[in-house]
């Protein structure tokens, strides 16, 4: 019995030794912990979208002011129609207003694409909660201006009927739509700008790091308060959405770490 046990122990030790020697990862160069630090902890990147929102707000204010001045001067004031037509080279006073409305809508579409690109980058860096909090705020300007375009088109289609009721009624309604659109757009852009500026000032760590810190704090202070999963009163759709975003972020994070490990394994001098 002793002989069999000794032989089994020797064979097991030989198998373990052979498996260790045949493992290429153990024979390869060891990667220090500091080498992966830049891939795990990245510098915080500020979002420049609040500057774009400020420029869009300024452009919107300028457009509405010029439209009001043009409509009041060329339509409501008597004796200025011929002068306006001479300056506008025969065009009606509403033509520049409508062309400007289309140009402003194109600028809002460009703003939406640019903001979405930066927010997708923030989402990929792990700021999932901020992405969800600002999702509605960044879409509101495009929704407001698209609704305003629909109202302007409706007014143009009903212009003859409205003129029968009152001569300048279509113009009054058009200016009212532009002013209401400006008010709602500035409010949404202001709310979005405040959220982005607060995010840039706080410079938070990714959500997964915050959850790990909070979980470690509660586990050290009061383990009975730590709970995970679905709770009564919480939205199941929100929980599923958070889990999907977190899984997507972790997959991208693992891909980056794998590329970093392969690079350091191929270039041990930079480890």
List its traits:
271 residues, mainly alpha, 2 domains, 12 helices, 78% helix, elongated, disordered N terminus
Question: What features would you describe in this structure?
Answer:
The protein has 271 residues and is an all-alpha fold. It folds into two domains: 49-206; 235-271. 78% of the residues lie in helices and 0% in strands. The chain contains twelve helices and no strands. It has helices spanning 2-22, 24-27, 37-40, 49-76, 81-87, 94-124, 128-133, 135-157, 159-165, 169-202, 207-221, 236-266. Residues 1-6, 11-31, 212-219 and 222-230 have low confidence and may be disordered. It is a multi-pass membrane protein. Belongs to the TMEM192 family.
Low-confidence stretches: 1-6, 11-31, 212-219, 222-230
Quickly count the helices.
12
Tell me the series of helices and strands, N- to C-terminal.
HHHHHHHHHHHH
Give the fraction of residues assigned to helices: over 70%
User: What structural class is derived from the secondary structure elements?
Assistant: mainly alpha
Major beta sheet summary: none
> Which shape, going by the Cα principal axes?
elongated
Please give the oligomerization state of what you see. Answer: single chain
Strand content: under 5%
Alpha-carbon Rg, integer: 32 Å
Query: For the residues shown, what is the average pLDDT?
Result: 74
Measured between the Cα atoms of the first and last residue, the distance is: 50 Å
The total domain count is 2
E-strand count = 0
């Amino acid at each position: 019995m002793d002989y069999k046990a000794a032989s089994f122990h020797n064979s097991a030790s030989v198998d373990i030794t052979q498996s260790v020697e045949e493992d290429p990862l153990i024979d390869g160069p060891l990667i220090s912990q500091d080498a992966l630090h830049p891939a795990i902890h990245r510098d915080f990147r500020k979002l420049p979208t609040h500057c774009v929102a400020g420029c869009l707000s300024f452009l919107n204010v300028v457009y509405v002011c010029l439209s009001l001045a043009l409509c009041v001067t060329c339509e409501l004031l008597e004796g200025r129609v011929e002068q306006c037509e001479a300056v506008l080279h025969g065009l009606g006073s509403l033509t520049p207003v409508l062309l400007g409305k289309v140009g402003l809508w194109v600028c809002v579409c460009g703003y939406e694409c640019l903001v979405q690109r930066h927010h997708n980058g923030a989402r990929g860096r792990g700021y999932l909660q901020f992405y969800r909090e600002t999702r509605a705020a960044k879409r509101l300007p495009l929704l407001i201006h698209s609704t305003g375009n629909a109202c302007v088109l409706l007014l143009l289609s009903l212009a003859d009927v409205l003129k029968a009721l009152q001569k300048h009624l279509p113009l009054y309604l058009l200016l009212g739509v532009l002013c209401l659109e400006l008010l709602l757009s500035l409010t949404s852009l202001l709310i979005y700008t405040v959220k982005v500026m607060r995010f840039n000032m706080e410079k938070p760590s990714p959500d997964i790091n915050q959850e790990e810190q909070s979980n470690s704090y509660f586990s050290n202070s009061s383990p009975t308060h730590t709970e995970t999963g679905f709770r009564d009163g919480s939205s199941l759709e929100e929980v599923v959405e958070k889990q999907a975003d977190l899984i997507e972020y972790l997959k991208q994070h693992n891909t980056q770490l794998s590329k970093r490990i392969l690079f350091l394994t191929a270039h041990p001098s930079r480890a």
